[in-house]
Amino acid sequence: MSDGPVLPLDVTAIMRLLPHRYPFLLIDRVIEFSGESCRAIKNVTINEPFFVGHFPGHPVMPGVLILEAMAQTAAVHACLKLGKQAGEQAFYLVSMDKARFRKPVVPGDQLVLTTSLLRGRGRIWKFRGEVHVAGQLVSEAEFMATLPSALSQESTADTTESDI
What we know:
Elements: H1 11-17, E1 29-33, E2 37-43, H2 63-82, E3 92-101, E4 110-121, E5 124-133, E6 136-146
């Protein structure tokens, strides 16, 4: 029996864990996982569809997509920690706090996305995320997400009407 995932995870392995697909799959590789933290990479190219309009002549990756890449890293983090696949079920962001953007992300940048698990039990998990480019912090946030029922540690018998 293996002690953990065989790293790195390529995009094909990531797609087995998450329901996201092009153009909204925003992580290319998972390079580290320890249970309490996970590190992934996103290579930003001029071919990204959002650069057509954000901004013509001065392409900048939208901050919300940087946060989405961070959330997808956290979703993979949860899958690896629990040893399960989300399949077609989605993770949903519940809150995003303390989000900061320090420097624009442009074509040619490689995002190094790191999530740290702050709280992980039940259906709601809390993470801290950081994004670095060339060793420099470009974005950070704390956020909570719901785990899909395929990953949840709670049984459906534990769900009450007030939870719905």
